Amino acid sequence: MANHSQFGFQDASSPIMEELVEFHDHALMVALAICSLVLYLLMLMLMEKLSSNTVDAQEVELIWTILPAIVLVLLALPSLQILYMMDEIDEPDLTLKAIGHQWYWTYEYTDFKDLSFDSYMIPTTELPLGHFRLLEVDHRVVIPMESPIRIIVTADDVLHSWAVPTLGVKTDAIPGRLNQTSFITTRPGIFYGQCSEICGANHSFMPIVIESTPLNFFETWSSSLSS
User: Fold this and answer.
1) Domain-located, residue 220
2) pTM score, two decimals?
3) Nearest-CA neighbor of 142 among 57, 70, 208, 73?
4) Burial (CB count <10 Å: 0-12, 13-18, 19+), residue 144
5) Domain containing 76 — which CATH number?
6) What is the per-residue pLDDT across 173-218, written as a single tens digit (0 to 9) for each?
């Protein structure tokens, strides 16, 4: 999760988020190169006397026409690749359904029989020592790590948004519609998210907690709940 005075992204815990962080750094380097070039040209124009050859140079006009097109291609190609990767869902090992309510989440493990629960935020007055305020829930979503997970998102009343930044996942929950996305957790841990769509007075009190565990722990947990 994010730390105080943190300027960058949270540590990536999925391949998609790793790609997003790399693309962000790539785009920033391109922007830095453009700003440096523009600043250099401005300083050059202020300090040097322009000649008629400089003002009427056809080569310069050709360069500043073609160069932006090349920059756009350098940004568009990796961006399109990541977009296709985010939409790709190929034989998931587990399907999870998240239903948004005012103001809590309901989770259904569709591959299991009668495995579903509601997830409410723990009030500050009942929060155990050492847990995070406004982020901890009474029932966490437990998933096996290094396994493709498909999540189907919908809502029961108003618009919501199921978002976990460290996994690079953000999907709108719309009443009467099913949206889906997928992710893979690359390491065990607890990952926090929140509803990212203004959904009413208690919009800030709809946290999401994902607990990524080894497969044997997940099997033990699912057996204890479904039995």
Assistant:
1) yes
2) 0.82
3) 208
4) buried
5) 1.10.287.90
6) 999 999 999 999 999 999 999 999 898 888 889 999 999 999 999 9
